[in-house]
Amino acid sequence: MEQIFESVKEIEKELAPYLSSDEKTAEFLMIENAAASLEKQIDKICSKKNHRVLIMCGSGNNGADGYTLARRIEKKYRVSIIKALEPSSYCCKTVFKNIKPFFDDSIKIFELTDDADGIEKEISEADVIVDCIFGTGFHGLVEEKIQKLFKIVNHSDAERIACDVPSGIEKTCASISGFSMQEKKRCVFCADKTVSMGAHKIGLFCDDAKDFVGKIIKADIGVSEERFAECAEKVKDKIFLLEKSDAEFPERNELNTHKGSFGHVCVVTGSKKGAGILCASSAFRCGAGLSSILVKSDNSNAGDIEIKMPACLMICDSIPGKTSCLVAGPGFGRDNDIKPYLDYAEKNNVALVLDADSFYYKETADFIAAADSKEAKLVLTPHPKEFSELLKICGFGEYSVNDVVQKRIELVRTFCQKYKNIVMILKGANTVIGFGKKIFICDMARPCLSKGGSGDVLAGAVAGLLAQGYKAIDASITGVIMHALASQKFKKTYAMTPESLIEEL
Fold first, then answer.
1. What is the DSSP pairing of strand 128-132 with strand 107-111?
2. Residues 90 and 166 in one domain
3. From CA 415, how far away is CA 450, in angstroms rounded?
4. N or C terminus of the chain with fewer C-beta within 10 Å?
């Protein structure tokens, strides 16, 4: 897994002496290496001198990256620059001054005050457009003149590359949260690739950024990964990006086994039995030796339709004696009594997954506090609305769904610092897992998961792994990755059903 950073400015200061004894020289070396990384990506797209590369430059060191890139490729391709903002940082001013001789020779430069038709023509003829306007320190909304620029650029046929982070993206994406996609495309550069310099930045993994970052490529800035990691050790709150290799898929290597060797999952559900069935089926698919459904009636079954049970699942009227993992919440309803099941898990030291309706019960908050002190195997799998309810009943205060989406890292971290032994899986476009002081992000899921039942499948996957003896954090990481990888197997993203998702686990 790769580490993600909220900011790398302090790390870059630590790295500077390894590049040069002079701080400014070190800064210019980082800029040079950043430009080289952008050049490498352009070379993968362009191969002829008549290929056109348009670079949009801002006022800070991102702008300096762009001007340096222009100097490096000015004889390889037909290069033009849009000076979106006047250079203001020392590095940007210096680099801009140094490439001025090229303006009369091989580089065309435009300002946003220039003829709009000329700029639009340049954009329409570009093979590659590189965004070097704003970096990770950007806050708020881009100004109107840049919005007008993005409106044209984001509809061009050119390959679009962002330097470090697409301009308009900030750490939490709060400024664009709630905007329509059309509105976002006026405020954010829409990249096909984002070249993240030195390390991954947290802003690239907020939900609202997902449609704008494209493929994320990490580029070095002139030091080894080992040296970077060494300087990054001082960062206290660790955030990691999950990769496929981080999953520990269940294996059955021993020959002398039986179904009891792989645990028994019991899913407690209510009148909406479909959710419970999906959850139990997923647990079975992920390797649990046995999987059962316990239906708790809430006396609201008028007109209830019988659902065909998969033959592999068992129906029970009480929790089986050898249950190794209990799931409560999927289809449970909000008018049942959840306490007996929480008590059972506590008394029998059974692994527990809480999902869906379970987060609307005050008893859940009491159980979480008790479970944390006993270091019980407990995994929570809410979506943002459920998490907002959980935060309320656990005494963290009132948070809207939008608050949760914008502050998902902050809120998961706050929750897990209070409940250090509980694993939190907050579902979303990018799923966030919290455990103690560590945060894990999975960005592998596809939009086909935006359907009812997908969360039940995830809860079941985690439960199936817990039943087989996985630690809570390992079951959570592996379950989330399995779930995400399964979503990648659907070419027609609209056509996925929870049942078909289970088959791909």
1. unpaired
2. yes
3. 25
4. N
> How many other C-beta atoms are found inside a 10 Å radius of the C-beta of residue 251?
7
- Could you tell me how far CA 385 lies from the centroid of its own chain? 18
Last residue of a domain, one of 219, 235, 251: 235
Cβ 167 vs Cβ 131: under 8 Å: yes
> Could you write out the three-class secondary structure of 207-219?
HHHCCCCCEEEEE
As given in the structure block, the two tokens for residue 497 are: 């059903």
Q: Which residue has the tokens 């709009």?
A: 116
Listed residue (39, 52, 54, 65) closest to 165, CA to CA: 65
| pLDDT score for 303 | 42
Report yes or no on 409 lying in a domain. Answer: no
- The answer to whether residue 122 sits within a structural domain is yes
pLDDT at 264: 97
Ordered mean pLDDT values, 10 residues apiece, the chain (505 residues):
85 87 92 96 94 97 96 95 96 95 90 84 96 92 94 96 95 88 94 94 93 94 86 84 96 87 94 92 96 76 62 91 95 93 95 97 96 91 97 96 92 96 96 96 96 97 97 98 97 94 96
Q: How far apart are the first and last CA of the chain?
A: 21
Which range marks the domain in which residue 358 is found? 263-297+309-401+443-504
* Residue 327 and residue 224 share a domain: no
Burial class of residue 53 (count of CB atoms within 10 Å of its CB; 0-12, 13-18, 19+): buried
* 221 and 327 inside one domain: no
Integer Cα distance of 253 and 50 in angstroms: 58
Pair 150, 200 in one domain: yes
Q: How far apart are CA 409 and CA 203, in angstroms?
A: 11
Same domain, yes or no, for 364 and 271? yes
CA–CA distance, 275 with 85 (Å, rounded to integer): 53
Q: Look-up: residue for tokens 């799998």? A: 381
Dihedral sign, Cα of residue 262, residue 263, residue 264, residue 266? negative
Give yes or no: residues 192 and 321 share one domain. Answer: no
Q: Are 196 and 165 in contact (CB under 8 A)?
A: yes
